[in-house]
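Thread: quick sanity check before group meeting

JM: Hey all, I'm pulling together slides for Thursday and realized we never actually wrote out the predicted structure for the chain we discussed last week. Dropping the sequence here so it's in one place. If anyone has concerns about the input, flag it before I start.
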Amino acid sequence: MNATRTLATTARVLRQLRHDPRSIAMMLFVPAVMLVLLYWVFDGKEQQFNSTGASLLGIFPLITMFLVTSIATLRERTSGTLERLLAMPLGKADFIAGYALAFAILAIVQAALATGLAVWALDMSVAGSPWLLLVVALLDALLGTALGLFVSAFATSEFQAVQFMPLVVLPQLLLCGLFAARDTMQPVLEAISNVLPMSYAVDAMNEVLRHTDVTGTFIRDCAIVAGVALLVLALGAATLRRRTA
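JM (edit): ok, ran it. Output follows.
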């Protein structure tokens, strides 16, 4: 992997996104809008908003980054851009890393907006530092980016890319502990939830919600989410194809 080529890819992706305001709006503002909607749903029920909102503060960025990244990467292949790029000295790892870095920059802004809105505008009360919420939200957004880059290799159209969401995201959403504590699930479902990264993202948010200090569980959960994101990025580079079959 070459740093110069990676940064050049990052700059190219950011220039392209600058001319796509709808994608930028989806990445930056949809999680914040969803949090506001949730705040209104739990109008006057502060404890329920704190509990559910903290979990969704990590889940919303993951979902939006997954959708935008998978579709944007697929467009590179279907338009022939990827084939032309890989005919140059640019390697697959440079392409994946450049894309990941570009979306990581947007993920930082997205996570900062959503976290700031939740804590300072919607009065989400957490025992730990709000900066820890930002860390988890950012890691979740990066995980969504990595998953989107990975599944785009297996889609042949934008419609197929969207179809991966029920397969990749929804099972994690159901089993992450948002709707029921994971230790109360059937043993098979609990075992599955224990290998899904979103479960650890929700656990990390709950650690910030309940504990004033950084706990060992919080560090473990963040490390797992970050590790899975890096692993998926590596798999994305390995499975990247030049063109859509």
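AS: nice. The mean pLDDT is 85. The chain has one domain: 3-164+229-239.
JM: adding both to the slides.
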